[in-house]
Amino acid sequence: MTQLNVNLADVNEKDAEGGGGQIIPRDRYLLNIVEGEVKRNSKNTGDLFEYKAEVVEGDFAGVKIFGNINVTHQTVTAQKIGQAQLAALAEATGIGKANLTDTDQLLFQPFYADLDVETYKGRDGSDKERMTVKKFIHAGNANEPPPSKAAANDNVKATTTTTTQATTTQATKPAPAAGGGGRQMPWQRTA
Fold this sequence. Notes:
The chain is about 10% helix and about 30% strand.
């Protein structure tokens, strides 16, 4: 027999599940990055920032979120998307995209992000789920509600109702916006 020289008293059994980690509801969360490094991607086509973030408040505090962001890539589109994500993360942390020079600057800097659930194929071919960052949120926009969880196009034709209005005077038009010079925005105009 081989002697184990480890103390397992403080080990969390949930860490043994592997895969994508704990699944939590899609929503906006306050996170911070607890680990991160830039390394070569598995296909050797570019470099990526591989990070582990953690929810820092609320009912799901401590839940880990794993992510990758392309820093360089031989495909221009992949590199452009990755660098835009990195810039958004820098802005969300308050560091600013012009000031980010080292990924260590991102460690333990709180930021808001909209999280989503992604389905992927595991190594055994089975469907698995993991949490992913859908969007990094700049602190100035953190109080705006996250996007609706409803499908953008549910392929159901919207029903329309037509009403007839008799317009006899100009009194039905809304007043011009304060300081707007009397110009109405398109959504303020009446037919």
